[in-house]
Amino acid sequence: DAEFQKKCLGKMGEVASQGRTVLFVSHNISMIARLCERTILLQSGIILEDDITDRVTRTYLNMDSSSPAMKEWPENESPGDGVARLRSVKIRNSHGDIRENISIDEDFTVEIEYTNYTTTLRPTAILHFYNEEGICLFSSNDWNNKEWWNSARVPGIVRATCTIPANFLAEGRIIVLVAIGTYNPNTIHAIYPDVVSFQVIDRSDGDASRGVYAGGRWPGVIRPLLKWDVRYRKTRSSSEPTK
Predict the structure, then answer these.
(1) CB–CB of 88/72 below 8 Å?
(2) What kind and span of H or E run contains 89?
């Protein structure tokens, strides 16, 4: 549970600060990115890569499918239960193409397909977005579509699409968790952490919030393009005569 995880992470940090080595074994990319500076990728007992965490996690994410921006499951292997099962998750750019690299100044979507088997419950799609440090940036749920939430459920394939606006996320690697759940009582029927990932790219052409600044990392976990109102009022110059 969350309290136990917090206790474990605290202990790991304490031991590491004493100069001792902590070996953390996991498939949770978000947690690895948060905790580890160096990562070793193993396959069948063989070391495939030993490098800084960012490079190794990118290799791992690219191993699982033709693109880290798409994950599909065969029907007999899909995560879920008798209420709902995941079919696919895809990142699409503003043109509808599956893309790993997303320009910071374009809208894009996360598309979830799942099979619904129930008429008595209301399955709903859930997304959590994490940065490379393992920080949950935000979460979203398809019940934001009130018409869908209030509609009757029938067995079949559901496609739920979440739109992320332009100039919202900061540049960097974003990792997505997907789940299908029902509420009252709260039940998770399918969950898959680190299911897809994508790279937000800020090309610094002056139209994004970075503006003309082409320097190093811009701070912040989100990067909205906010509206500013700036007004100018001329003051009397010291060289101007007084009346």
Answers:
(1) yes
(2) strand 84-92
Instruction: Examine residue 193 and say whether the peptide bond preceding it is cis (omega within 30 degrees of 0).
Output: no
pTM comes to: 0.69
Residue type, 110: V
Mean pLDDT computed over every residue of the chain: 84
What does the H/E/C string look like for 184-242? Answer: CCCEEEEEEEEEEEEEEECCCCCCCCCCCCCCCCCCCCECCCCCCCCCCCCCCCCCCCC
CA distance 212 to 203: 10
Q: Find the distance separating the first CA and the last CA of the chain, reported in whole Å.
A: 75
Tokens linked to 99: 């893309």
Decide if pLDDT at 243 tops 70: no
Residue 82: CB partners within 8 Å, gap ≥ 6? 117, 118
The tokens for 60 are: 């791992």
49 token code pair? 């890569």
Token match 């007992």: residue? 45
Distances (CA, A) of 8 to 1, 24, 35, 194: 11, 11, 12, 21
